[in-house]
Design goal:
The chain is an alpha/beta fold. The protein has helices at 18-32, 44-49, 56-59, 63-70, 91-103, 115-130, 157-175, 195-198, 223-234, 276-288, 310-328, 379-385, and strands at residues 4-10, 35-41, 53-55, 108-113, 136-141, 182-188, 213-215, 239-245, 291-296, 334-342, 347-354, 397-398, 401-402. It is found in: Cytoplasm.
């Protein structure tokens, strides 16, 4: 039987779980005993265009190395932010790529990423169809934003949500020690979809009700109502903690730092663009003259392996394995998906959809999962989120810090 050869790439922003999907693909390829070479693109499709790739079967030749990869954050293969042109506009790029595929006898192509990555899978699959290539193209989802269509949730989101909830709980404990009027604003990633910010509600326990207010980009944000909400919370407690998505916009669809009434300006009157949290911090201080602090979680919420969700890593590994099974069964032009079967007990299954129905679309929180006051989430959203952060991951340490996979191949001058 003719041996198979595949390419694997990673693209877009990093997550805790993307390497778990990579490990799942490598593991399934080895277990099948049908793959002679499993090549990893260094820096995604851009690296492939520059003929930069490594043989992953040689590097991950035992279970110990594969386990270490599964428990390493960010992207082992590196990433890129490259939007593949349409082949009608740039046929030479496709000819170069498929020439490489032909030289290496590639039979399968796996690309792990978000929306732009699924766009790449769709375009390569379409071009393969026009030239009658038999290569199978499969997308594996990942994004902490949880905004890919067609899947119940995305690998990487559960761990980021666990980090957000944990950080929110720790901020609440830190803020509770003083008896004074105070507002803490926590800015969380999410330009258009508020899934991560919604996950801050998972921090609520029997002794902690923070965050007291949650603001998501799916609904318009009113600064006047925001101040009224704070004023109302101040009636029964002194210390207020607020979770806010970085992408909240006003009723006109404008980002908050474009509102000249609250934006800081330099000596020449030019707007100094700052984060949403900073804008709200200034607004709250002007109104209440109390202690106000804004905290931006930023990239910290993307790759915190020390607080990863076990469910997230196991599912990410599982969907990588399922991708290999799907391509070997003849599927192409698809994105792997999760289908939730039930919440209690939580159960999902791996499936797939036509990538053309997914690429360049965005899944946002259903408005009915946001409360009527637009400052909190509903129980339905909480019940959707809670299974995704379950379980803890054991991280190996060396000299007091985590011991992750060697990424010296990503060093560049």
């Amino acid at each position: 039987m003719k041996k198979r050869n595949c390419f694997i790439g990673q693209s877009g922003g990093p997550t805790v779980a993307i390497n778990a999907s990579l490990a799942g693909i490598i593991h399934a390829c080895k277990e099948s005993q049908q793959f002679e070479h499993v090549y990893g693109m260094v820096n995604g499709i851009m690296g492939l265009l520059e003929s930069r790739y490594i043989d992953l079967l040689e590097l991950f030749d035992n279970q110990e190395h594969l386990d270490q990869l599964m428990h390493s954050p960010a992207m082992y293969l590196g990433s890129c932010r490259y939007k593949l042109p349409h082949f009608q506009d740039d046929p030479q790029t496709y000819e170069r790529l498929f020439h490489t595929f032909q030289q290496l006898n590639i039979t399968d192509f796996y690309y792990i990423g978000g929306n732009d990555s699924m766009d790449t899978v769709a375009k390569l699959s379409a071009y393969a169809n026009t030239i009658q290539s038999s290569i199978r193209f499969v997308g594996i989802p990942k994004t902490i934003d949880n905004d890919l269509m067609g899947t119940d949730h995305t690998p990487g989101f559960g761990s980021a949500a666990k980090y957000v909830a944990t950080s929110m709980l720790e901020i609440a404990y830190d803020s509770s020690i003083y008896k004074l009027d105070a507002v803490t604003i926590v800015e969380i990633m999410g330009r258009n979809a508020g899934w991560l910010t919604a996950a801050s509600a998972l921090a609520r326990t029997q002794c902690n009700e923070a965050p007291d207010l949650i603001y998501l980009p799916e609904v318009p944000f009113s600064t006047e109502k925001f101040l009224d909400d704070i004023r109302e919370v101040f009636r029964h407690k002194k210390n207020i903690i607020i979770a806010v998505s970085e992408g909240i916009k006003n009723e006109n669809g404008e980002y908050l730092d474009s509102d000249s009434k609250y934006t800081k300006r330099d000596a020449f009157g030019h707007v100094l663009h700052s984060g949403t949290g900073k804008v709200l911090e200034s607004l709250v201080y002007q109104e209440f003259k109390c202690k106000v602090r804004s905290i931006e979680l930023n990239v910290l919420q993307r790759c915190a392996m020390h607080i990863a969700s076990k469910v997230d890593l196991e599912e990410s590994f599982q969907i990588g394995e399922a991708a290999v099974q799907a391509s070997m069964a003849g599927q192409t032009g698809i994105m792997m998906t999760f289908e939730r079967l039930q919440n209690q007990p939580y159960q999902i299954k791996c499936s797939y959809q036509d990538v053309l129905k997914i690429a360049n679309l965005e899944q946002r929180i259903p408005v009915e999962w946001i409360n009527d006051a637009h400052n909190d989430i509903t129980p339905e959203l909480y019940n959707y989120l809670i299974p995704l952060i379950q379980g803890e991951v054991t991280v190996q340490f060396e000299n007091g810090i985590p011991c992750y996979s060697n990424i010296s191949h990503l060093r560049y001058k």
